[in-house]
Amino acid sequence: MTASPIIFDRQLLRDRRRRAGRLGASDFLVQRVAEDMAERLAVVLRQFDLAVDLGTPGDAVRRALQATGKIGTVIAASPLATPTPRGALAVVADEEMLPFRDASLDLVISALSLQFANDLPGVLVQIRRALRPDGLLLAALPGGDTLTELRQAFAEAEAEIEDGISPRVAPFADLRELGALLQRAGFALPVTDVDRVTVRYSSPIALMHDLRRMGATNVLTERRRKPPRRATMMRMIEIYGERFADSDGRVRATFEIVWLSGWAPHESQQQPLKPGSAQHRLADALGTKEQPAGEKAKR
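The structure corresponding to this sequence follows.
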């Protein structure tokens, strides 16, 4: 079996998240996702007795979900030992090595965490196994256009100043790729969609400070260890302002949130029809004449 490539330094990720907590975490994006996640669950016509919040920074998601009245017990599962309210349950667990028994959970939720898994397909398989039949996975993670402005500005500045480009922003998953991964992991009724959030900052430096307080700075294993040259940073700020500033001088930063959901298979779920079982012809429904294969329509 081929080992998954080590793209992210997960120990460094944990260190960065601890530092973010000490600095005063910036959680506006997690708060936004938490509200959206609660709205999505509110329309699901069932209760979830046992849920796991997998890797989400902070407790915003757990609080939002418990307010829906659809969740019984929520277990916070995170690589970091974080304080939890009295009566709440928590377990120190890495997203890549889940400690839960097969078919033991009704719901797994995750917000802005799974993008740092080195083996995302393997994580999805583990989640699928941990869910009871008709259990649900609902997750949100950054999509491919996240921080596109910062990536473009850094790439252009480094190409001009340093004659080379280093990886500074993590690669993010594509919408179609995530849908395919859900199917490969054995989820039924997989659904993916995307939400785009534009945040405005006073400067690119303010954006980078916010990313630091999110614990979302560069943790790529192939990152350049030396800090960027001052000339590179100044040129990046200049390019960013030229290309992505509004008329009031504030700059834009894109956060693309990809949502994915899937159910552990169960006999009660809607099943696809067998090939050849249709009762009506498509041509009749469209009000057109059916053409045999290979025969061209007359002009």
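The chain has one domain: 10-270.
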